[in-house]
Amino acid sequence: MAAYKKHIWILVVFVLTPFLSVSSQKRLKQIFAQPDSAKISSFAFEEDSLIRTPGIGRFDRGITNYRFAPKGQILFGVTFSYADFDSKESSLLMVLKDFDCSGHTVKINPFFGYFIRDNIAIGVKLGYERSQAELGNLSVDIDDIDLSMKNMRLSSDLLVGTFFHRSYVGLDAGKRLGLFSETSLSVKLGNSRFSRGIGEELSDTRTSIGELQLGFSPGMAVFIMNNVSTEVSFGVLGVKFRKESQKTNGEETGSWRKSGANFKINLLNINLGITIHI
Predict the structure, then answer these.
(1) E-only strand ranges, 26-96
(2) Contact at 8 Å (CB) between 126 and 76?
(3) What proportions of the chain, in percent to the nearest 5, are helix, strand and coil?
(4) What is the pLDDT along the chain (278 residues), one digit of tens a residue?
(5) Phi-psi domain of 156 (left: phi exceeds 0; alpha: psi -120 through 50; beta: other)
(6) Quick check: 150 and 198 in contact, CB under 8 A?
(7) Cα–Cα distance for residue pair 40/266, rounded to 1 Å
(8) 257 and 242 Cβ atoms separated by less than 8 Å
(9) Looking at the domain 66-277, which fold is it?
């Protein structure tokens, strides 16, 4: 019986090797070098981890999707991002005269989700976003143009509620590494404040903000422990509708609505996170 199995393995290697990638050939050779019981358990483990994706129409893309997280699993965690700017540390803006500007943006989003199917989860996020910028001085002197601005400050605080759908693609049978795409629908509510000047020349403008946004964010997740993973994601696509109402020095100055879409990598929307799976 053992000799019969050995002949079968030799036949499999001989037939499949010309059609396999280098990594697949190495993997097959490693399995072939193992005892018979190890070969069977290794293939059974990978077979159990695979998720079969039916082809669309007559097309089969041949995508291998391993089970990164099973149906019924719960995940919760937090994502955060931070970005800052300081003109004193920027070499790109040395062409401007007397330029003094600084600012930062902080985002934190606790979330909770549930896997409704293998590798597919839905959930909610509740977040907070804080942005602040200050322009101490800016002078531009080009030919006949002489422009000077100073003592300008901008800050905003937003509360964010999000419903998300996340789809994973497992990259290995060990369930350690996976890619994901996240589609989200967010509602943002908050206010911003813009002030210019000091003392009697102070102009204070306050804005109430309401925003509805549909976004798409790809990312990568890695298990660092049995039930703990880290992730990184970034926004590349967004469609939003925004409404603002504005008051200057206590008097209403107007309101407006605007909408738009963008498709780009937003460096201010790179998120790091940690997730617990139970």
Answers:
(1) 50-51, 65-66, 74-86
(2) no
(3) 20, 60, 20
(4) 444 444 444 444 444 455 444 555 555 555 545 555 444 444 444 556 676 655 555 666 666 788 889 999 999 999 988 888 777 766 555 555 667 778 889 999 999 999 999 999 999 999 999 999 888 776 666 666 666 777 788 899 999 999 999 999 988 888 889 999 999 999 999 999 998 877 777 788 999 999 999 999 999 999 999 899 999 998 887 899 999 999 888 788 888 898 888 877 766 678 899 999 99
(5) beta
(6) no
(7) 47
(8) yes
(9) Porin (2.40.160)
Helices (H), 34-117: 36-49
**Per-residue 3-state assignment (H helix, E strand, C coil) for the chain:** CHHHHHHHHHHHHHHHHHHCCHHHHHHHHHHHHCCHHHHHHHHHHHHHHEECCCCECCECCCCCEECCCCCCCEEEEEEEEEEEEEHHHCCCCCCCEEEEEEEEEEEEEEEEEEEEECCEEEEEEEEEEEEEEEEEEEEEEECCEEEEEEEEEEEEEEEEEEEEEEEEEECCCCCCEEEEEEEEEEEEEEEEEEEECCHHHCEEEEEEEEEEEEEEEEEEEEEEECCEEEEEEECCEEEEEEEEEEEECCEEEEEEEEEEEEECCCHHHEEEEEEEEC
Q: At what angle do helices 22-33 and 36-49 cross, to 10 degrees?
A: 140
- Written as six digits, the tokens of 15 are 């037939």
Domain assignments of the chain as residue spans, ordered by start: 2-51, 66-277
Distance CA 110, CA 213 (A): 18
Structure tokens at 115: 């896997």
Helices (H) and strands (E) in the chain, counts: 3, 12
Cβ neighbors of 88 (< 8 A, separation 6 or more) are 100, 102
